[in-house]
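Pasting as-is:
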Amino acid sequence: MTKATLNFSNLTKESKKRVKEIIKDRRAYYKNYNNQFKRVTLRLEREEFKELEKLSKKAWLTNTSFIKEIFLNYKANEPVISQEIIDELKKLVFAIQWVANNINQIAKSNNLVSSLFNAKRAKDELVKINSLVKEFINKKYQ
């Protein structure tokens, strides 16, 4: 590899000095950059790479950003949750809110017409629904 040389013959003394300062600053910048950031190389088999690309695209990230995100989440002991799981959880929350709204309407009707609505039975049903939801989440996402 040949080293590029600069022709300073046409420059003034001040210009030459400024060019040398710029080169010195740039070298310092790259030295600091290389000390601050490290490159990691990863080898995958073809099928593993295809899976990585698929998962990265699903998460709307580059392959590098996806792997870095997994590492940072692992380091922080946070689970990596895909957008698909987040969407499913949103649907589940909506369903739970819908059920809670219906129960509130039933309770309101009960108070208005003083029907024979059994509060203990309703509470038991809510506890049962809560345990079913927890069981569903544990089975599907763990």
